[in-house]
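#struct-pred

JT: dropping the chains for the assembly here, can someone run the whole complex?
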Amino acid sequence: KQEVTQIPAALSVPEGENLVLNCSFTDSAIYNLQWFRQDPGKGLTSLLLIQSSQREQTSGRLNASLDKSSGRSTLYIAASQPGDSATYLCAVWSMGNDYKLSFGAGTTVTVRA
Amino acid sequence: DAGITQSPRHKVTETGTPVTLRCHQTENHRYMYWYRQDPGHGLRLIHYSYGVKDTDKGEVSDGYSVSRSKTEDFLLTLESATSSQTSVYFCAISEFQGSNQPQHFGDGTRLSIL
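RK: done, full complex below.
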């Protein structure tokens, strides 16, 4: 069974600092890994999707890397802003689980002005 | 944002009563999913649908049933609600089951069972 872990559970940084969020998974046989953002009382917004054949994806200030062999992904957010405060979740789509995403519990980020 | 509407957004009900949650999409996507989100567990898949009248169980399906009579609607039913089913429920959709296709989520239904 695929297990996805996100450490730390919470993170507080001053504005302008770079954010580094970690995600690890136990089974490297995956189709893709996705990073989502969740604001309080809201659903999940897809940020980046990395296919299993890719090493990284970038969108604006966001960069996500994937090391499938070690079961790790890192989301980098450059020059953090208070508007980046949210919970960030990673999810993997494992081979053998045709329709199932396995989610981590998330990292809650607070960016202090 | 993907056109996904969940209703109701909030509901409080009593143990033993039936509850139906609705997910409506305007994207004409084939795949629809119901998740529940609980502290410390992340999101867990309850049921999913891969077409009209085609559904299957996820990892936490006990106590839940689903129906999909139209492409745009996916209903989740708790036949006899229990306190352990207090949670936030999310509907998601995706167009394809390809490796480059993200899922898009609704805003959730907060369900409290007393």
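JT: nice. Chain A touches chain B at residues 4, 31-32, 34, 36, 41-46, 49, 51-52, 89, 91, 93, 98-101, 103-106 (CB under 8 Å). The radius of gyration of chain A is 14 Å.
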